[in-house]
Amino acid sequence: MAKTPEVGGQTPPKIEYPCDFPLKIVGTAAEDLVEVVCNILEVHAPGFDATAISWQDSKNGNYRSVRVVIIATSTEQLDALHRDLKATGRIHMVL
């Protein structure tokens, strides 16, 4: 039987799909960052509620955090979403 990989000495929690999955995406602040994020989200989580997106700039205005909830359907979906967000070169963290 395969062992569940451990992260930092702890077994990661099991996610039961499909589920509401909150994301916090931190990128370099720019007027079009939310639009860029939305375009990528639409590819990986079509039909997500774009009206429920919120964002906030950092204290110094260098970064913008974008918060959204998607319906996650698989680990592969989340991995592909993360990969495409990071591939923009503008996203620093996806939490």
How would you characterize this protein structure?
There is one protein chain. This protein has a single domain, classed as 2-Layer Sandwich (Alpha-Beta Plaits), CATH 3.30.70.260. Helix content is 26%, strand content 29%. It contains 2 helices and 4 strands, in the order βαββαβ. The protein starts with 18 loop residues before the first strand and ends with a strand.
Structure at a glance:
Pfam families: DUF493. This is UPF0250 protein FQP86_01670. With 95 residues, the protein is α+β, with helices and mostly antiparallel strands.
Low-confidence stretches: none
Largest beta sheet, briefly?
4 strands, antiparallel
Rg value: 15 Å
Indicate the mean pLDDT.
91
Number of domains: 1
SS-based structural class? alpha+beta
Question: In what range is the share of β-strand residues?
Answer: 25-35%
Report the principal-axis shape: globular
